[in-house]
Amino acid sequence: MRREERAKSEEKESQNDAGREKAESAEGAGKVREAEEGGGVPRILFVCVGNACRSPMAAGLARKMLNAEAESAGIAPFGACATKEALEVMRKFGVDISSHKPKHVTEVPLQNFDLIVALDSFVGECLRSYYNVPAEKLIIWDIDDPFMKGLGAYERCAREIYAHIQKLSEDLKRRVKIEGEISEGERKK
User: Fold this and answer.
1) Could you say which architecture CATH assigns to the domain 21-184?
2) The pLDDT of residue 173
3) SS3 assignment, position 155
4) Residue 91 appears among annotated catalytic residues
């Protein structure tokens, strides 16, 4: 119990110190925190089970589409690299994930990310329950795992991830625009 209280207290202090605001995500799946210094480049961690398919594809697409600092991890990493199907599908999107090495979620400093995206509800629950990811940082998408289901499943998965990142991009742009209007209004006072 003490650890949870300490984590909540540290999270609250971090939010107050950085002046971060909470906002509903475009998906309504959770709340997102502003990137540091209002509207900066967001730092996003994508998490799936094995960190060999969905999360490296999502991180690669986010780097390209959002110009974000994006990483990936898994709750039970598998293999030494991204799957060949993930590599092939990402090449079609103009994204190179060939240097990806699966890693466990404990190998990345969770507190350094503005957003943590779970690629399914099981992973989201694990992040909440076992790794104490705060609700305001967590977004949960429900994207089927394409592992061992063939190239078509990977292509569908990539299209779904692409659509979710587009929605996330629109949400981030709206928030930056609103912040810009507020800042301009404050300067006129």
Assistant:
1) 3-Layer(aba) Sandwich (3.40)
2) 77
3) helix
4) no
